[in-house]
Amino acid sequence: MQDDSLQAVVVGAGTMGTTLAKLMAAHNVQVTVVDTNPQVLDASRLSIGTHAAAIRFTTDLQSAGAPDFVIESVTENVAVKRKVVAQIEASVADTTVIMTNTSGIPIDDIGSAMRLPQRFVGTHFFNPADIVPAVEVVPGSHTEAAVVEEACRWLKRLGKRPAVLNTCVPGFVANRIQHAVMRECLSLLEKGVVEAEALDDIVQYSIGIRMALNGPLCQRDLNGLDTHLNIARYLYPDLEARQEPAALLEEYVAQGRLGAKAGQGFYRWSDESRTQHQARERENLQRIIEIAAQHSRRDEP
Predict the structure, then answer these.
(1) Level-2 CATH architecture, domain 7-164
(2) pLDDT band for position 1 (50/70/90)?
(3) What is the pTM of this model?
């Protein structure tokens, strides 16, 4: 049974902060959402829907009470995060665990000015945070092991699958892998090897399907490491290894082709098509996660 006495604060009412609050409310956590912008808070409340009645929204961090946990989920900017974390530390008890929901900024960079950095830990949730199970748990160089353990216990209470990194590296694990894949994808597009739609079909309906059932290392075991090694020997020299972002990506961003939010990226989007796609994605993500979880349970001894 969930401990409904657990209290948490989410600082930042953007997309991630909103879904984090929704997740906590659904698991009977007493949660307060803090944002300096009242309009952002109103939008968050509307987006959360029925669970919003159980959530407190405020612009005043000082009024957030005595939480067990605080999650900083503001914009992905180290200076902004550092400032917000300092404000959080000045507002809570010394026993409160402070988390940063960063996608890959080194934890020590964010917590560099903290008085008690040993109670600070990275928790990288994936969007949408109320659905995707994995959370990268990233200790800084000062983070105490007990804090990592406490964070993992709390995450499991929320139905998450915490995955602890031994070492904090820029981008953590997921974004390093994602950017390595995208570097090769953009290179293939630039070279005219394949069109965008065909590339998406190849990835989605081959390795994408398998990745929902097996991680990359498990899949290599099933395929055979000798086979992987033989392919790696001839393929690695031909893979993209550039150290700068692809010219195609730079060009698209310069043109304002920022993706669905701007109406065009690799594809064209309308407000209606984006909304419909995101709604289908949420529904289908839940189905895929259920299948993946069932698959994993069958493999357990």
Answers:
(1) 3-Layer(aba) Sandwich (3.40)
(2) very low
(3) 0.91
